[in-house]
Amino acid sequence: MTTLLGTTLNSRYRLEARIGAGGMSTxxxxxxxxxxxxxxxxxxxxxxxxxxDQLERFRREARAVAxxxxxxxxxxIDAGEDEGRPYIVFEYVEGETLKERxxxxxxxxIAEAVAYAIEIARALGAAHARHIVHRDVKPxxxxxxxxxxxxxxxxxxxxxxxxxxxxADGRVLGTTDYVSPExxxxxxxxxxxxxxxxxxxxxxMLAGEVPFKGETxxxxxxxxxxxxxxxxxxxxxxxxxxxxxxxxxxxAKRREDRYADDAELIADLEEVLAIETARAGSATGEVTxxxxxxxxxxxxxxxxxxxxxxxxxxxxxxVLAGAGAGLAWLGSRAHHGTGKPAAKPPxxxxxxxxxxxxxASGFNPLGSPTNEHPDASLAIDNQLGTVWNTQNYFDRTLxxxxxxxxxxxxxxxxxxxxxxxxxxxxxxxxxxxxxxxPPLKWPDPGWVKVSAPTDVANxxxxxxxxxxxxxxxxxxVWITSLGGQAVLGLDEVTLYRLRR
Length: 500
Fold this sequence. Notes:
The protein has helices at 46-49, 52-66, 98-105, 110-129, 181-184, 191-207, 217-226, 232-235, 241-250, 262-280, 285-291, 296-299, 304-332; strands at residues 8-9, 13-21, 25-32, 37-44, 76-82, 85-91, 95-97, 132-133, 142-145, 150-152, 159-160, 350-352, 360-363, 388-389, 403-413, 417-421, 427-434, 448-449, 454-456, 460-464, 472-481, 489-490, 492-498. By secondary structure, it is α+β, with helices and mostly antiparallel strands.
């Protein structure tokens, strides 16, 4: 496998280091040479690439995770094939796995363990809302980034609940240290199965070791079926009864005795975090971050002194952010906007239209999600390399009239040119404009075509607009062809009008 180091996939991703391996695939740290950023590449092993079942499972992982956008889920950036070997490109998370953290620290501080459990449960909730069950929740599949935040990864055996597929009932997949009783018995697996595994992960964070050990994986799996999880308060006496009750409920053998869904578990974990923080009398690290997200009624359980500490940290962050924004404003002299692009305008007679930082929206009226992909503001921030991407269209066709992104040039402008900067040229786009807020439907008579269909053939393409003297507020980049690509990126979208 090391012979692949230094090679480049599809003339874009240079493999720099191997960071993980399994029976089906190998994970590399790689450099995206187009955007000059670190990414993680999961490359299917050559010996299994010819197995149609394994190939479909690999593709299913990409499809599953590409649907998910959540701060505690490692996101998919791209997917493709190189010389017959499929690969998936993920965001690269600098840090350590939760398993490595437990090995390094032993028992984690109680509040920290609960905070991580909340973040993992919220990530699973986002997946379950899309009918995706992870099926292999374990600390090896949770990354702790440099800021201390947890991110769930490796949906390699994930299954969509409403589809029949390769991980059919009757096959036990997953690590048996964390396997649910029903999965160990080959019975139907649901979101409650993930919650059981999370309960075991929470136990391990608190106890410093897994609840069951055995000579074989099968013997461990059968203990999950037949034996109760050890009493948490015996192995960690300082843990509250409320926390022990959460572990017991999450790991109940019968699903009817377990948490019914993520929301129930998260609500109890949030209560426990407030209790444990109150008992500790202070909060640090990721606990502070999670405390800020708790419902107001739950925060009332925390002593005022600790709440004041959390609020003080939040206010400091706001002040620092405000100071940074103020310096940026002074540097650019752009009134509540994104400032002037560094690139030269298309002609000396033109100047850029200032847009506010949140004046871009993904537009997907013919699909789901309706915003196509979050963080549309990345396309108007005047920073090359911060890209708004479409969803991953694995068959490289839209199968709909179009998809796109629009900007709000409030209060309106007579724009003459729209410039698209993209790391993925080759697609086709048409520019539309309107005066009233866009409804979520297509076609709609409010949109006026102000350009001909244009092949965005270069990394920077200027599209002439035909709106004349009419002032429009909203301008839509309507993509009608992917140009044979799975994911398109809009690095910068800039409007230009005549100089005053």
